[in-house]
Amino acid sequence: MNNYISFETIDFAKKLKGYNMLFNYRMSNLCVKAEPTALMPVTVFVAGTEYNLEEVANILKPDDFSFDVYPKNQNNLQDIISGIFDVHPEFKMELKTDKAENEGGADTQHVFYTMPPVDKDRRKLLNETTKTFHKECKVNLDITYAELQARLVEPYTQMSPQDVDEARKGFKKVYDKAREECDKMLQLKLNEIEEGYQRYLTEYNDRYAEPETDDHEMEVSEDPEIDALFK
Hints:
Blueprint: H1 3-28, E1 43-46, E2 49-52, H2 53-56, E3 57-63, E4 66-71, H3 77-87, E5 92-98, E6 108-114, H4 120-151, H5 153-157, H6 161-208, H7 224-229
Antiparallel strand pairs: 1-2, 3-4, 4-6, 5-6
């Protein structure tokens, strides 16, 4: 394979990978689980200066569906809350107090975030948005592939039929792999959304299940005075 085709192959693969990475990043911000990448867009303004969230806070993930955000400076707590709200207003926020380790020390506060439940409406929205992002990703992959083929028409005239065939197969392999990865990411996200919905249904049913009726409470009274009220 000549140097020109090698360069084009590397550049083509890099572009397709970029579109898939963007697709994956956009899906990570459709929060079903607590994805650390979902906090990457968060910036915090402190005294007029913009910081990335990790510069002003320590972030822990106690489970798959929540974040603990500890300010490095307690004075920045409200700024951190505002920064996260601007990007993810759907997060459920709870302010927690941490008792001082030493007697006489000052208590501190941190913020506990949980991911919103995937109810029926949110499930529909997440599915539709994910499929829209997927469609946009595949369109970008297709356009980039078409542009490459058009650009190679003239260079192919300077190559042997065998080299042209080899180059075309190589580009097609890169293209097919990128589309396969795109489709795989779509299915993984749809599965995650469905799992979130089933989790919501389980929790909802457990929370609102009717308590079993005590048979003793259903016994008919034989008190004549009470019976007289209904005559």
